[in-house]
Q: What sequence folds into this?
């Protein structure tokens, strides 16, 4: 039992981290039809901003999550400004320009983080009471892993409610499917784009804040989960958040069990699984429409 | 017309972003101001190429090396330079990437610079070393730890100023046998590439030699965990090590990966369950990151200043570092960069020349003063015989949350392998 | 007496070097049905785009109920009361008829500030639920309520698009070739629908057409556009007899046999 349970929990934890990063990416792609290369940069900014408020204090969980939320809001506002000033200039142009622009933005973010916080590695304490282990099925699981899993599920559920079950979500999906038609209904589509972009940044930032106690804080961490996040977005079906959730779980478990049962070929399992799924379903697990499951 | 304007704005925005990032990053080209150091002026400067990682995951190592180099230059120039000529550094970023390392080295070679030091990444060193041979330059590396550089891939234009894994891991294994004779079950978490594997192989060989010799006990290796390079999650490896009941654990994960691994081990009460944790090479990076979350553990370093506080040279470097950078904990890379320049200075003064062949000849067999006492560069394989410094850190309440509570120095002579340039390292 | 809903003054529109509209001016009175005719490529769709805001005029002014909307964004114009249906029906293929109407009504409720969060977060506001049935009846799509849009016939798609436009309570409705591609019965149904809606809701309609029977059965007034220029404007009988109009259509077959 133990030999299955541990990699299961570790795989799910890692999967939820990847999903937290991928959710914003998927949302922005689904509605704005752009791949934001700087997404990982905002994840990193979420980590660093959270660290700046907390430093080396172990806060109560409530305070901790409040701070993470606050950092998300701050970065979302910056994201909204960036969308208005920079991103929207590129919608009408060839996709290549958008990729270059967001990549340039990523480089600016990485340089700024280095300049502001320095090259030294940092670490964040876990919230009080969540830094130890919990015993389940006779095995010790880091309590914070459960927090990360809960956070990933919460984000998935809330996004599903928002996009699929609320009237606002219908309008977002309409704007995603046919922005011109939606404009013809008197809806301010440009503002929807700004809000969705900012929301995507918010998700990246809180993903960073929530994940911060789980790993080293370094100026190169923008790329920590981003490749896997892109992979999960593609495997899930571009723009499909539920697909990304499912893909994250599948690939996360494959990776986790892969490290235990196939140690000779470390890290390959994730990419092999990706390739296999895409061979069978080239457009990803689900149709690329902005929806969840 | 609207589309054309949009295009123009897009182009301007991209240009602006590019300009900002070029200006902001700035770390590409750095020259040391020629007026660093007062006494040596007027004569033709001696230039050294310093190629270190200034960006990417190894940037912190590069930054420390650069600082050590600059301190060395200032001290040398204050004392009149080398043979009366001022020293100048030409610094380039290797990005810890072999292609970039080769490219920047080529750039400086074409400018006529023949003497180099720096390089953290073994991959970069392995690429640059043959380039030096081809273009008649000479390089002293200040961190790259791959065995091959003084064995299979050796060539006369390559020198290593630091210890090598053989010496370092043997010293650490010896220390373990001396201090923890009852810890006979060992495991490791290592990065799955050449550096990771070679450090573990050397440490394992050391354990197998010293435990029977010193502790009079047989050793059992119960868990070897190879983590993919760049992994963000070490929990499976951590739990595997715990389940194997290993009591002594070795790691050669470095930099941010080490911090992540240590951080993820904390919730498992990992460090309470084992007797001892050994970190091969991270200097102060993990304690500086983790503060009072730092678990007690041993760290192999290039140079621990406290061990040499009676040495005027070491004290000067330490004081200068603290003054200039407001940081009381210089890492060993500072000392190694400094030592590289000290070696060059002694060699140039001995040879009374700066051309490559003369410098190489003078470096071979050279004994010179460094921040960690006397060092000798072995003539056969250009490996430096020097002290191995090992420190023990513990968490404390006051800032910065950790301290070094003891250290051990091992003389390199007893620990170094017999030279075999051109042939792979053989472990008994 | 007469209430000018829309005034277009000397509109010029270029696409690069090509002049699509050359000094077009006209006025629409409240409540009239105006039909715009002209050969293909004359600029009819471009004129509608300039009125609805999809494209902005290079020169000239568009004044709606006394307000200059020449440079206004298109979605704002919808909020001001200008609705538009396109030549190719713009609908949401992946939604059902009912869902599409929800979205359209939700949009109206939203910018009319009829929405209250959080009560209306999960269910459409009451306004939307009530109105959906009403509009479906008005348009005649009640029995197709739950059908997915992509399976609708061409004619029904156009009706749905019309319904969605009506959800915005337009004051001025622009219809771009409403009977294009329809069979004779569908055409007749559409004409009757337009007449019925016009008489119930009392809005102004501006539409383009090629089918002369439709033109004459609907139009209060007719405007003729010929390669970017307004050639004639007036009552149907005047237009029928106008020599300039006859010259324009001389030699053209099909719909314009009515002139010969």
A:
């Amino acid at each position: 039992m133990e030999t299955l349970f541990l990699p299961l929990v570790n795989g799910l934890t890692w999967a939820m981290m990847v999903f937290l990063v991928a959710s914003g990416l998927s949302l922005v792609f689904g509605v704005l039809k752009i791949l934001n290369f700087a997404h990982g940069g905002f994840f990193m900014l979420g980590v660093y901003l959270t660290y700046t408020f907390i430093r080396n204090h172990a806060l109560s969980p409530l305070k901790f999550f409040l701070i993470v939320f606050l950092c998300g809001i701050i970065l979302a506002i910056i994201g909204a400004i960036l969308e208005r000033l920079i991103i929207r200039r590129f919608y009408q142009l060839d996709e290549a320009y958008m990729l270059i622009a967001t990549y340039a933005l990523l480089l600016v973010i990485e340089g700024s983080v280095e300049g502001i916080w320095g090259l030294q590695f940092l670490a964040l304490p876990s919230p009080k009471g969540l830094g130890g282990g919990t015993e389940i099925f006779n095995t010790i699981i880091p309590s914070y892993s459960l927090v990360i899993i809960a956070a990933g599920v919460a984000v998935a559920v809330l996004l599903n409610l928002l996009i699929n079950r609320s009237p606002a979500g219908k309008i977002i999906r309409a704007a995603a499917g046919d922005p011109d038609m939606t404009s013809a209904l008197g809806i301010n589509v440009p503002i929807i784009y700004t809000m969705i972009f900012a929301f995507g940044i918010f998700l990246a930032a809180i993903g960073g804040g929530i994940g911060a106690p789980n790993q080293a804080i370094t100026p190169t961490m923008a790329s920590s989960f981003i490749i896997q996040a892109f992979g999960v977005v593609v495997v899930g079906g571009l723009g499909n958040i539920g697909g990304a959730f499912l893909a994250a779980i599948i690939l996360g478990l494959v990776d986790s069990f892969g490290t235990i049962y196939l140690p000779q070929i470390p890290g390959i399992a994730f990419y092999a699984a990706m390739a296999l799924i895409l061979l069978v379903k080239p457009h990803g697990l689900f149709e690329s429409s902005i929806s969840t499951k | 017309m609207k589309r054309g304007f949009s295009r123009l704005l897009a182009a301007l925005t991209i240009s602006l972003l590019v300009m900002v990032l070029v200006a902001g990053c700035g770390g590409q080209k750095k020259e040391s101001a020629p007026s660093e150091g007062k006494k040596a002026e007027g004569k033709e400067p001696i230039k050294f190429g310093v190629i270190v990682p200034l960006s990417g995951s190894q940037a912190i190592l590069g930054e420390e090396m650069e600082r050590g180099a600059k301190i060395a230059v200032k001290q040398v120039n204050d004392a009149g330079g080398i043979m009366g000529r001022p020293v100048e550094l030409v610094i380039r970023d290797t990005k810890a990437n072999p292609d970039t390392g080769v490219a920047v080295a080529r750039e400086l070679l074409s400018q006529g610079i023949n003497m180099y030091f720096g390089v953290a990444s073994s991959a970069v060193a392995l690429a640059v070393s043959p380039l030096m041979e081809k273009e008649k330059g000479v390089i002293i590396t200040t961190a790259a730890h791959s065995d091959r550089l003084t064995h299979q891939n050796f060539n006369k234009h390559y020198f290593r100023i630091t210890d090598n894994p053989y010496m370092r891991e043997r010293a650490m294994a010896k220390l373990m046998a001396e201090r923890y004779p009852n810890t006979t079950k060992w495991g490791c978490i290592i990065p799955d590439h050449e550096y990771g594997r070679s450090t573990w192989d050397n440490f394992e060989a050391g354990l197998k030699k010293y435990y029977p010799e010193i502790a009079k006990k047989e050793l059992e290796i119960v868990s070897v965990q190879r983590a993919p390079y760049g992994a963000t999650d070490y929990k499976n490896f951590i739990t595997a090590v715990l389940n194997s009941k290993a009591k002594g654990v070795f790691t050669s994960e470095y930099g941010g990966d080490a911090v992540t691994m240590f951080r993820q081990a904390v919730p498992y009460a990992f460090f309470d369950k084992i007797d001892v944790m050994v970190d091969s090479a991270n200097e102060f990076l993990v304690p500086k990151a983790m503060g009072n979350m730092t678990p007690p553990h041993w760290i192999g370093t290039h140079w621990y200043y406290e061990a040499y506080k009676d040495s005027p040279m070491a004290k000067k470097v330490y004081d200068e570092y603290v003054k200039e950078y407001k940081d009381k904990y210089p890492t060993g890379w500072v000392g190694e960069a400094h030592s590289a320049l000290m070696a060059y200075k002694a060699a140039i003064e001995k040879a009374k020349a700066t051309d490559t062949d003369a410098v190489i000849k003078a470096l071979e067999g050279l004994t010179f003063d460094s921040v960690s006492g006397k060092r000798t560069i072995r003539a056969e394989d250009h490996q430096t015989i020097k002290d191995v410094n090992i420190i023990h850190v513990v968490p404390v309440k006051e800032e910065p949350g950790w301290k070094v509570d003891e250290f051990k120095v091992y003389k390199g002579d007893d620990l170094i392998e017999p030279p075999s340039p051109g042939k792979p390292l053989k472990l008994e | 007496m007469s209430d000018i809903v829309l005034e277009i003054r000397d509109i010029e529109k270029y696409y690069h070097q090509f002049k699509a509209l050359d000094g077009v001016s006209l006025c629409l009175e409240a409540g009239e049905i105006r039909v715009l005719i002209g050969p293909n490529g004359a600029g009819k769709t471009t004129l509608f785009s300039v009125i609805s805001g999809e494209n902005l005029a290079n020169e000239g002014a568009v004044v709606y109920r006394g307000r200059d909307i020449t440079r206004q964004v298109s979605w704002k114009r919808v909020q001001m009361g200008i609705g538009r249906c396109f030549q190719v029906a713009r609908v949401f293929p992946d939604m059902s008829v009912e869902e599409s109407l929800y979205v359209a009504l939700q949009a109206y409720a939203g910018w009319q500030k009829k929405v209250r969060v959080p009560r209306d977060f999960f269910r459409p506001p009451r306004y939307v639920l009530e109105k959906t049935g009403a509009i479906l009846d008005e348009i005649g799509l009640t029995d197709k309520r739950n059908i997915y849009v992509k399976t609708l016939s061409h004619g029904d798609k156009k009706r749905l698009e019309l319904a969605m436009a009506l959800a915005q309570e337009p004051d001025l409705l622009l219809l771009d070739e409403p009977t294009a591609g329809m069979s004779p019965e569908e055409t007749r149904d559409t004409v009757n629908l337009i007449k019925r809606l016009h008489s119930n809701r009392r809005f102004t309609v501006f539409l383009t057409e090629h089918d002369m029977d439709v033109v004459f059965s609907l139009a209060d007034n007719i405007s003729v556009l010929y390669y970017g220029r307004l050639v004639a404007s007036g009552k149907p009988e005047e237009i029928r007899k106008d020599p300039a109009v006859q010259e324009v259509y001389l030699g053209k077959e099909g719909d314009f046999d009515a002139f010969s």
